[in-house]
Amino acid sequence: MGSADGGELDRLLEEQVTYYRSLAPDYLDRGLDLPGGQELTEALEAFRPTGSVLELACGPGTWTRQLLRHAADVTAVDASPEMLAIAAARMSDHRVRFIQADLFTWMPDRRYDVVFIGFWLSHVPLERFESFWAMVAGCLEDDGRVFFADDAYRTPDELIEGPSSAVIRRRLDDGTSYRIVKVPHRPADLHERLRRLGWNIAVTATSGPFYWGAGGRDSVHQAQH
Fold it and tell me: For the whole prediction, is pTM greater than 0.85?
C-alpha cells in the first residue's frame, strides 16, 4: 500500500468506512474472544482517563461507558452515523457529546485532557500516520495524555495482498467483501515510530494479540512549544 497514490488510498478509506457502516448492526457480536482482552480493560482502569476525554472512532460505544467511570465529559467521534446511533441509544449520559466526522479531515473545536483511541490505530494507513498524530497533538492540552488499545490479529484468508501488506479483506455475514486497512503494528516498532514523532508512549503487549499504549508528548517537544 506504500506505493498507492492519493486517489487510490482515498478510495480504500471510503471502502473502510462503508464496511463499518454496514457492520454496525452486528458489530457488538464481532468481539475478538482471544486471550489478553481483559488486560486492556484493566490497563485503562489503571490509566484513569480523568478530565475531558476525546474518544476517536468510538464505534457503538464499546469503551465509552468505561471512560465515563473517570471522565468529567466525553466527546465521541466516529465516521459512521449508524455506529453513533447505536452508541447514543446505549447510553443517555448528558456528559457524552457525539460527533460524526471523518477522522482524517476532522479538526477539534477545543482541547482535551485525554485522547482515547480504541481499536482504530491499526486502521490508520502508514501514509496518514504522521498527519493523524499531528491531529491528536492538536486535540490535547499541553500536559494531555493518550491511551490506545488495539490488536494485530489478521486471519490468513484476509491477507489478499500477502502478509506484508496492510490491506486486508473482511466479509460480512451476507458474503459482501470490503477492503480495509489493518496495520499489524508490533509494540516495539510502534513505540519507536511514535518516539520519532515526539511522543513518549509506552506500548505494552498482552498475553494475546492485543496491545495498549499510554503516555503523552515528550518533555523536549513540550518545552519547544
Answer: yes
**At a CB cut-off of 8 Å and minimum separation 6, what does 50 contact?**
70, 71, 72, 113, 114
Q: Where are the domains of the chain?
A: 6-224
Q: What is the dihedral of CA 172, 88, 149, 41, to 10 degrees?
A: -110
Q: 166, 175 in Cβ contact below 8 A?
A: no
CATH topology of domain 6-224: Rossmann fold (3.40.50)
d(CA 206, CA 35): 8
Give the contacts of 136 (CB within 8 A, at least 6 positions apart). 56, 115, 117, 146
- Dist. CA 48–CA 46, nearest whole Å: 5
Low-confidence residues of the chain, pLDDT below 50?
1-3, 223-225
Angstrom distance (rounded) from CA 198 to CA 136 = 12
The greatest distance separating any two alpha carbons of the chain, rounded to the nearest whole angstrom, comes to 53
